[in-house]
Amino acid sequence: MPTHDEVDRIVGAWVRERPDLDFAPLQVLSRVGRLARHLDRARRTAFTASGLESWEFDVLSALRRAGFPYQLSPKALLQQTLVSSGTMTNRIDRLVTRSLVERHTDPNDGRGILVTMSADGRQRVDTAISTLLVSENELLDGLSAADQERLAGLLRKLSLDFD
Questions:
Q1: 65 Cβ partners below 8 Å, 6+ apart?
Q2: Coil, strand, or helix at residue 135?
Q3: pTM (predicted TM-score)
Q4: Which of 17, 47, 68, 136 shows a CA-CA span of 20 to 30 A to 101?
């Protein structure tokens, strides 16, 4: 297994050209960025194979994680997917058109709406997550379980300020 990667080459060139700067952040964040591109490709492939766009997967997976009866309010969906109210309304409309979700009046609040995932939406998101996990496991194949746990902890620590 090689001991140097493309980031080492890039950082080495910068250090040669600008020895006055500390390139330590590139050692971490350039690798995170490059891995994010590989992950994005794996996700697009998994979602496309299930007939979903990435935003559709985001909404459907939030509903799936909610558990039976796989329904949430639009407000809860936008909080979980970090989009605006107008964007969420548009997304729900498009998912309704594709018969992946349905809108229902909230029985506890006649003015409220609940978005419920259809059986087709559930089947698609379940297939997509299964396919995605296979791809993600392949991306992490070079790390032991202990290394993966350690990396997850470090990334969690780094991301806490952003969440």
A1: none
A2: helix
A3: 0.84
A4: 136
Which value, in Å, is the radius of gyration of the alpha carbons in the chain? 20
CB half-sphere exposure, 2, CA atoms < 13 A: 6
Alpha-carbon span 156 to 160, nearest angstrom? 6
pLDDT at 17: 97
**96 Cβ contact partners less than 8 Å away, ≥ 6 residues apart:** 102, 103
The answer to whether 63 and 148 have CB atoms below 8 angstroms apart is no
Burial state string for 26-43 with b = 16 or more CB within 10 A and e = fewer than 16: beeebeeeeeeeeeeebb
Residues 81-92 have pLDDT tens digits of: 989 999 999 999
* Domain 26-140: CATH architecture, name and number where available: Orthogonal Bundle (1.10)
The 10s digit of each residue's pLDDT in 27-75 is 999 999 999 999 999 999 999 999 999 999 999 999 999 999 999 999 9
* pLDDT at residue 50, as a whole number: 94
> Are residues 50 and 124 in contact, defined by beta-carbon separation less than 8 angstroms?
yes
DSSP 104: E
Give the torsion through C-alpha atoms of 7, 8, 12, 13, to 10 deg.
-40
Q: Tell the residue number behind the tokens 């796989």, with chain if given.
A: 70
Q: Would you kindly state where each structural domain of the chain is located, as residue ranges?
A: 26-140
